[in-house]
Design a protein that fits this description.
single chain, 241 residues, alpha+beta, 9-stranded mixed β-sheet, 6-stranded antiparallel β-sheet, 4 helices
């Protein structure tokens, strides 16, 4: 009951940005497993989650952002929308979660139901839902640059890097560590394709304007490891008539 009260209190104070905005409900449902964690309560818009105790010690975090001080704008499939404080993106389960506790503890985490969400904006990052083969139809990717010809999106995933083991004692000298990795997709007319971003790939991708892109790369210091630089290339390509 305390968690439900916190949810209602938090959302009733949010600034809505649609005339037909709807605030998340507070109905409850029977406990079950959701994304590998224990559900304690839920609603049609998401579920309360409680992290399962882990026997192994792993360093790092499955969350994209370093803290929970992020305000997020949620856009639903209809005309509804709402703004929610203290939101983070759980890369492991590809879902958005809100920390409803006053002291930022992890005992009041609400996981949003991805099926009803169209896109989410956190700061300068915009996440859109796409259908990815092998990952389902409710998979969120970050939109790096959206264009009429081609759009560039970024996918996040996590891996566990094993800690160093002492060859003599066979005991770990370092703990396993969570590593957040990324990959890129291009979207042409709704068709998604995973790509390795490098000069040769970009020139092939933009072959119809190859000379213009070559000149652009020559005139600008572009790093294919920096999203802001990659965005410039796609923005320029989409602007060429």
């Amino acid at each position: 009951m305390k968690k439900i009260f916190l949810l209602v209190t938090a959302f009733t104070t949010l600034y809505t940005f649609s005339q037909n905005s709807k605030i998340i409900g507070s109905g409850t449902s029977a406990s079950n497993m959701y994304g590998g964690v224990q559900v304690t309560a839920g609603s049609n818009n998401g579920v309360w989650i409680k992290s399962s105790a882990s026997k192994s010690k792993v360093e790092g975090s499955y969350y994209l952002f370093n803290n929970w001080v992020n305000n997020a704008s949620f856009y639903l499939l209809g005309n509804e929308g709402y703004k929610v404080p203290q939101v983070n993106f759980n890369v492991r389960f590809n879902r958005f979660e809100a920390n409803m506790s006053k002291n930022m503890a992890v005992d009041s985490i609400f996981a949003f139901n991805s099926q009803s969400i169209k896109k989410v904006v956190i700061g300068d990052k915009e996440f859109v839902k796409k259908q990815i083969e092998g990952k389902g139809s409710n998979y969120f990717l970050e939109m790096i640059q959206e264009g009429d010809k081609v759009s560039l999106l970024k996918s996040y995933n996590t891996v566990i890097n094993p800690g160093t083991i002492n060859p003599m004692t066979q005991k770990k000298m370092q703990a396993d560590k969570i590593d957040i990795q990324s990959s890129y997709y291009i979207d042409r007319g709704g068709n998604l394709e995973e790509v390795k971003l490098k000069k040769s790939t970009v020139l092939k991708l933009m072959a119809d304007k190859k000379q213009e892109i070559k000149s652009f790369l020559s005139d600008n210091k572009i790093s294919f490891k920096v999203d802001a630089d990659i965005k410039k290339i796609f923005n320029y390509y989409n602007s060429i008539i």
